[in-house]
Amino acid sequence: MAENKDNLDVYEDDNDVITLTLEDGSEIDCDVLAVFPVGDNDYIALLPQNDESDGEVYLYRFVQNGDEDIELINIEDDEEFEAVSDAFDELLDDEELNDMLEEEGYTEDEE
After folding, report:
1. Does pTM surpass 0.90?
2. Whole-angstrom distance, CA of residue 74 vs CA of residue 41
3. C-alpha 17, offset from chain centre
4. Distance CA 14, CA 33 (A)
5. In the chain, how many domains are there?
6. Per-residue pLDDT tens for 39-80?
7. Which range marks the domain in which residue 65 is found?
8. In DSSP terms, which residues pair with 48 in a beta bridge?
């Protein structure tokens, strides 16, 4: 489901798009799907805009240094990656349920 890239340079655009600069100098524009906490850390889910990604989502530890400077850190630990992946899947499930309820005209107060 998700993949890690090595040695990333990152900068952010105002439209919730992050451009990843890979080790080989190539760049990938990614839509920001979510920034979410797991334990004591924040994580980010990115969806590449290119057609070659096949819907693959990239997960990274997310650190915001100041107002505009962000850092994405590869998730090296298998247990940490599994926990982040599970949290992202749960976030997607919750979002899909909320979208379905909104389409049916329900609000959180009516549930």
Report:
1. no
2. 13
3. 11
4. 14
5. 1
6. 999 999 998 988 666 778 899 999 988 777 888 999 999 999
7. 2-110
8. 30
